[in-house]
Amino acid sequence: MKMAKIIPQISLFLLLMCLSTNSIFAQLDFDVACRTSLPFCSDAAQELTFPNVTGEPFLGMGEIGCLNTSQNGSWYFLRIDRSGELIFDIQQWVDGNVNSNLDRGEQQLDVDFIAWGPFDTSFINCDDLARGCDLDGDTNLVAAECENNADDPDFYTTGPLGVDNTNIVDCSYAFTPDENDESRFIETFTIPNAQTGEYYFILITNDSDLPGVIQLQQTNLDEDNAGTTDCSILEPGVGPDIATCGDFPVSIEGRFPGAIQYRWITPAGPQGLTDTPVLQANTPGVYELIGYSDNAGTVEVGRDELVIVDVSLIEIAINPVVAEESFAGSYTITTEITTTPDDIQALGFTDFEYRLDRDLGNGFIEYRPYQSSPVFNDVPPGDYRVAARYRDCPVSERISAIFMILGYPKYFTPNGDGFHDTWSLINIENQPTALIYIFDRYGKLLKQLRPGGAGWDGTYNGKLMPSSDYWFRVEFNEPTDPNMRRRVFAGNFSLIR
């Protein structure tokens, strides 16, 4: 996905985390605490470690999902970048040497959590966060129906009685009577099928009331079908530019520290002030968000913009380039594309994908499925075409002209079964001036072939030639050379009876 800004370093993230101090969370009710949620992400570049909360009384809400209490709650939200499954380990400990690493001898603390989603914005109504589960679909939310995923790991993913009908996506409090079992200090948070652009909220508790740090680490980043979080939400502003496949409206949002009022500047002009900087964009173009620290919208504290491009409207011209000269045996095809409008790629919208089709005699079929790389390696000779499109946008697909790679069969079997009964060069028929000769192992000329003709049937003067290796020589114009220079190539093949 195209990123408009550089992912911030962990120091910036920790600065944001410092906002989650006791003064913010103390004495807050559930809905007020929910609205103080801060963004987080976790990727290969940074393990997410941030201060926990202490000194906060119980919220007075009773049970919340599978949690009996919600003491010292830390509230965060994440946004999905790449779709897929996300699995996090959550730990909490007293960080004695303040290095954000769990070192030998440091006290581990119990950590519990509950998570909700998906949402299409981070500016949610906290009343929408379910505080109980509904297994039978009767709309009655009962905390007792929410399982602890430490007891039933599949409850919130597959669910033995059917997936919970609310927006609780996971909940856990690990417990074991074995005080020496350190796994009881690790909770696992799973989002099984996250989609790009979705938001999820998480409440993490600290029942010990001891100061320390909480760490979330995504453990499946290197696995197939692993989703990722969007670290651009850690930056003030509106985040990365957006490519949409004609799907409008597109929900966009942003925020600035200290801002209490916002104004959008859209392609249609300035919008009115709002305290919820979420906009449903209905057209492509540039959208700018301005944040103000006063209700009147006079003291500006930040501004940022993003571009929305409708990739279903772009035109793609495709030029496949074959790296090797003819008769190399195996070929590399590199796909060059140009787009209209031509500034699409310059703006950073480069998430194109490519497919290779081949004609095996009955029309073109998919030979290599869509891939992000424009390079196809180890391609044999034959007739091909390349399809290109913007990622996940089928209507933007365009197909190249057919191109042919010269080659020759390594063997033929003239036994009359209809398969490989004759031998001829592959794709030489478009070169009427080509000269093709076949020799036996002693250099005796057995046959001169006509480009595009019937080929050699394995006979000489009406007699069957024996199974053996035979040689050929071809004079032709090199199609990969813009000047079509004249070349000579010689090789051998096998006759098998």
Write the layout of secondary structure elements.
Elements: H1 10-17, H2 22-25, H3 30-35, E1 38-39, E2 48-51, E3 74-79, E4 84-93, E5 108-109, E6 112-119, E7 168-172, E8 187-194, E9 199-205, E10 213-218, E11 242-244, E12 250-253, E13 261-266, E14 269-270, E15 278-281, E16 285-292, E17 300-310, E18 315-322, E19 331-340, E20 352-359, E21 364-371, E22 375-379, E23 382-390, E24 398-399, E25 403-405, E26 411-412, E27 435-439, E28 445-449, E29 459-460, E30 463-464, E31 468-477, E32 486-495
Parallel strand pairs: 1-3, 11-17, 26-32
Antiparallel strand pairs: 2-10, 3-9, 4-5, 4-8, 4-10, 6-7, 6-9, 12-15, 13-14, 13-16, 16-17, 18-19, 19-22, 20-21, 20-23, 23-24, 23-25, 27-28, 27-31, 29-30, 31-32
Structure commentary:
The strands form 8 sheets. The chain has a 5-stranded mixed beta sheet. The chain has helices at residues 10-17, 22-25, 30-35, and strands at residues 38-39, 48-51, 74-79, 84-93, 108-109, 112-119, 168-172, 187-194, 199-205, 213-218, 242-244, 250-253, 261-266, 269-270, 278-281, 285-292, 300-310, 315-322, 331-340, 352-359, 364-371, 375-379, 382-390, 398-399, 403-405, 411-412, 435-439, 445-449, 459-460, 463-464, 468-477, 486-495. With 497 residues, it is mainly beta. Helix content is 4%, strand content 37%.
